[in-house]
Amino acid sequence: MTQPQQTSPDQLAFQQYRTLLFSVAYRLLGTAADAEDVVQDAWLKWSAADRSQVADPKAYLTRIVSNLAMERLRSTRHQRETYVGPWLPEPILTGPDTADGAALADSVSMALLVVLETLSPLERAVFVLKEVFAFSYAEIAEAVERSEAAVRQAAHRAREHVQARRPRFTADRARQRDITERFFAAATGGDINTLMELLSPDVTLWTDGGGKVRQALKPVVGLQTVAGWFAALGTATYQGIEPGQMQAELTCINGGPGVVFRGPDRVISTMTFDFDPEGRISAIHNVANPDKLHAVADGTRHELS
């Protein structure tokens, strides 16, 4: 009889931090596929390393992942700058633990990930490790292989940049879910009056088709325009799929309430929302690029510690 294969101490150590490593990599890269690749590369480096010299596996693995992610960010920058239409992060399904913690949910929201795209790779890494995972400046300096002074400067620049583009306010999670459900009902029912009530006056709709499917190539801005766009949603054929063939499901995406649209044989798009201090919808992120829907289509829910 074949004996069950034993898990080695090295594998156990890596598995202990795997969720953390994916959580760091995804926030740094904005795509689940790239984050998984970076975690796999980190495993290969970990397997080949002289672990007798590793005093702190968590710090060591975080350093590997941070540097691999920064390298990948630098190499993909041109690709993202020449992207067709708005570039949005790859959405992922998240569990209730992510949604229940306001700070944790915000740290993986589409809105914040879009802002993080405008930082340099170093600023992004420092911001994520400091603001999301509460690493000390000394730990971050070791992870990104910079001086502590350089890390403090990068953290200051990143924090100012993020706060200017995404002011923080206390989020009422139950209210956000309620608004999303009402918006969903109004959009599928073509109820433009309710849509006008739920949307912020300067609401912005971002649609990412990546040149693969037809989408607006510029943000759609303004209450009347966005409400009209959604009021027509339930009556129009979309990507060759008739309204009657389309299924929509309310679920948790990137730490907040979202919608997954499905056709008979595939996921068509996802929609996530950002809210203003009054609880109205201030931004809508619609991802329809099929290359960015694999993580949602496979149904995996990520716990992003």
UniProtKB/TrEMBL annotation:
Residues 110-161 form the RNA polymerase sigma factor 70 region 4 type domain. The keyword Transcription applies. Gene3D superfamilies: 1.10.1740.10, 3.10.450.50, Winged helix-like DNA-binding domain superfamily/Winged helix DNA-binding domain (1.10.10.10). It holds the Pfam family Sigma70_r2. InterPro entries: ECF_Sigma-70_Domain, NTF2-like_dom_sf, RNA_pol_sigma-70_dom, RNA_pol_sigma-70_ECF, RNA_pol_sigma70_r2, RNA_pol_sigma70_r4_t2, RNA_pol_sigma_r2, RNA_pol_sigma_r3/r4-like. It comes from Streptomyces piniterrae. It comes from the Bacteria. This is RNA polymerase sigma-70 factor. Residues 14-77 form the RNA polymerase sigma-70 region domain. GO terms for biological process: DNA-templated transcription initiation. PANTHER family: ECF RNA POLYMERASE SIGMA FACTOR SIGJ (PTHR30173:SF36), SIGMA 19 FACTOR (PTHR30173). GO terms for molecular function: DNA binding; sigma factor activity. Belongs to the sigma-70 factor family. ECF subfamily. Keywords: Sigma factor, Transcription, Transcription regulation. SUPFAM superfamilies: NTF2-like, Sigma2 domain of RNA polymerase sigma factors, Sigma3 and sigma4 domains of RNA polymerase sigma factors. The lineage of its organism: Bacteria, Bacillati, Actinomycetota, Actinomycetes, Kitasatosporales. Interacts transiently with the RNA polymerase catalytic core formed by RpoA, RpoB, RpoC and RpoZ (2 alpha, 1 beta, 1 beta' and 1 omega subunit) to form the RNA polymerase holoenzyme that can initiate transcription.
